[in-house]
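Long-time lurker, finally posting.

We've been working with DUF6002 family protein (Streptomyces microflavus) and I want a structural starting point before designing mutants. I don't trust myself to interpret raw outputs, so I'm hoping someone here can both generate the structure tokens and explain anything notable. Sequence follows.
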Amino acid sequence: MTAITTETVVAAAMARYQPMLRATPELLGLSHTGPVGFRLPEADARLDHFHEASDIALRSAGEWRGHRVSLLDLTLNPGTRTTKTFASLHIVARAVQHIRQTGEPLLLTTPTSGNKGTALRDAVARAYAAGLATPEELRVLTVAPAHSRSKLRDGPLSADPALRAANPLLVADVSRPDDVKALARSAYERLRSERTRFTPWFTLDLENYRIADTLRAYVEAELDPVGPGSRPRIHAHAVSSAYGLLGYHLGVGLLESAGGRGPAAPHRHPGFLLVQQLATPDMVLSLLKGGTDRGLLPRYRRADPAGPWRQDDDPHFPATTDAPDERLDATFYTTAPPTSAQINPLIGRYGGTGVVVSRRECLDRYEEVAGLLAPLGHQLPEDPDDIREWSLVKAVTGAMVAVERGLIAPGTDLIVHGSGFYTDETLPPLRTGAQVEVSSSAATEDALLRATR
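Top reply, 14 upvotes:
Generated this for you. Predicted structure of DUF6002 family protein:
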């Protein structure tokens, strides 16, 4: 299979690997998630236009302290700047096919800490622009916690008053960011019990994301395959639930069973480096300590009441932080993710580990991270406070920390998953008044019902 690339970019990866995406559900024995099946529309000019936002790059950053470092860049969609693009395009394409088959209008519903909602809204807007669906056929409602206001981004569905009303973005006043999941689920169940013109689809399901994330493995297999005699390899990823790594793992398995229908398969599965923050370190705790209780964290102390907190008991956790429960980025809001039960055995089998990073660690290495990323197309702002999405910086910092502390063996290649990076300049924040404020389940349900009119 000949790679269709521009230098190191696979253009329109969703279209490029469409045969694999179409075959995957049958290989996994999947038929539906919620009311929607896994069939995709037949390829045509409209679908090609829709998939234009799905470029993926794999670029080498050269050697760093004896490690060959590359960036798997998943941020090339200018409407999202995050990896959530691929699953969202896949979800919306399936929705389009369902509407064509059944004639049922669909209302997509999901909780979000910001990026997932932005990407779904962007994909729905792209479906409108490509002529794949209309607002009378397809809509989306997202529920974000108030903690995530800085993450909410603007786009076509916010700019147009009619589209804004048809596709509401709810901001919920909740005690814990994770509470929006129960809030959105409750509203969805209420809508399912009502007789409305729109069929609701609660899209927060691993299979809705895992299949699209197989693209990561396909791109690597084409551009930098792991062949006989290759050096050991670790994939570093800033994670909340690690859906992306589970999708990558699935892709590697599918390549091995593709029988020549896909890109040449890697000969060896890489290890994984999980990178998290102190507010939500549960995947790293689960991997290293066997549980998620915060009592398993190393004990932080500070000599000066106004100074930083420190620990030197465990190299997998920040040596210095401004707060032992520091929330560096609101995107990473998931506690005790059930996906740890799937990730931990993979790391046990293929290698890897986990690290937690603090803002101080990111800032201590900021100039070095900026120098590494600049030739790869990412200019970090002079003021780190301008960063709204820290995934990329966290992942690179985590990889550096792991190397510095001997957590990654010498001579190991590193591929950093660039799963998200933006500032207000590169991806404008949500315009004033474009959100609907809610503070209860009843208000959320009412907003959902209004979106079906």
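Before you design anything, note these points.
The two ends are 48 Å apart (CA to CA).
The first helix runs from residue 13 to 16.
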